Amino acid sequence: MRYKNDYDTAGASLNAIFLKILDNLEKFRKDDSFIAWMKRIAVNHLIDGYRKDKRTNKNTSYLEDRKVETSASFHEKEAEMDSEYLLQMIKELPETTAKVFNLYAIDGFKHREIAEILKMNENTSKWHLREARIKLKAKINVFNETTI
Questions:
Q1: CA–CA separation, 11 vs 74, rounded Å?
Q2: Minimal CA–CA distance to 144: which of 80, 69, 64?
Q3: Which of 35, 44, 46, 94 is surrounded by the most beta carbons within 10 Å?
Q4: pLDDT (tens place) for every residue of the chain, 148 residues total
Q5: Calpha distance 21→147 (Å, rounded)
Q6: Which structural domains are found in the chain, ordered by start?
């Protein structure tokens, strides 16, 4: 769900990932970590989908990518900050910024690897991570101010 916006596309991606894993099982080397091998297949599949979507959506304006979310999408003041809420905050980031944040902060990729995967400059990857941190920190501060 970190890479997809809804459960339907996330489920379809998960099925496709499992199919790729099963189809390529004979390529797995027993010396390697099975979890790391599966993770690499999953991330590559999701990034390939991102690239495909990016090519088909080239006409999307920059302003649509940078739209500001309203506070109406946040949980009520009484809600506790949990993983679902944090996931929602990450989804509200601009698409590329969210992808860089997920790859770096959650999946543990280095900026060099992210730059190769997303076909961008390493410094651009660092900029997107910085933007994600700034925006997430602001959202957390808004949440904390409204719940106190």
A1: 24
A2: 80
A3: 46
A4: 777 777 888 888 889 999 999 998 888 888 888 888 898 888 888 888 877 777 666 545 444 444 444 443 444 443 445 667 778 888 899 999 999 999 998 888 899 999 998 999 999 999 999 999 999 988 888 776 766 5
A5: 44
A6: 1-59 (no CATH), 69-148 (1.10.10.10)
